[in-house]
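Reading group handout, session on sequence-to-structure problems. Before we discuss, look at one worked example. The prompt was deliberately terse, the way you'd type it at a terminal:

> structure TIGR02117 family protein

The input record follows.
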Amino acid sequence: MRRFARIALLLLGIPLATLLIGALVPRPLLPAVGPLSQPRHILVLHNPIHTDIAIPIDREVAERFSFMTQAGLPLDIPGAVYAVFGWGGRDFYLNTPSWSELKASAVFSALTVDRAVMHVSVIGDVPEDHPAVRRLALGEAEYSTLLDFIDASFTRDGSAVLPIDGAAYGEYDRFFEAQGRFNALLGCNTWTAAALRAAGQRTGWWNPLPLSLDASLSLYNDLPASQPGGVQP
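And the output record:
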C-alpha cells in the first residue's frame, strides 16, 4: 500500500513540479524592453482554461484586420472598444461555447492533436480591475510586432484569410483557419505567451494554464497593480 501511495505521489508530483518550473523559469532569461516613454496598452483576458489578447480598436487595427469586416464582424460598430484574439483547437473551440456543451470528442481532440483556429470577437469596454484581466504596456515597436504575430497566425490562401462558414458563438465573433496544430501541452495559453514574448514581455518557460501564465507575467514584468470580463457592444 505504501509503495502504491509513493507511486501515486510521484505521478502527481511530476506534472505539478513541471508546471511550477514552467512558471518560475523566465523566458527570456533577461528583460528585453527598457522604460517606455509612450506605452501602448493591451489586455490579457483569461478564464480557468483559456486566454485571449484584447487590442484597443483604432484606425491602425481596423486597417490591419479589415478582413474581420469582410467576414461580417465590423470593427466600427457602436460600442466596440476591443478586438479580441485567441488561438485554439478546432474541435474544442468550435463545439464548446459553454461548459454545458462539452463533448467527449472535443476533450479527446484537445488531448491528442487537432487543427488550429483563430477566434476573433469585438467587445465593449471592460473593467481593468477585474481579476480576469491583465493590463500590459508595450513600446511602439513591440506593439507593432504583436500585431504582426497575431496577423501571421491566420491561415491564408494567397492574401485572403479563411473564415470558417457558420462558425461563431454569437453576433459579435467569428472563427478563422489558423496556423499550427493544437494539443493540451502546446495550446491556447502557450500561443498567448509566445505572442506576448514577441511583444517584449517575459513569461514562464512553459505556461499551459492561464494561472501559470498570469503568475509569470506578474513575476517578470513591471505591471500596474490593477488587473476582463467582456461586455458585448
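Points for discussion. First: The longest strand covers residues 114-123. Second: The first helix runs from residue 2 to 24.
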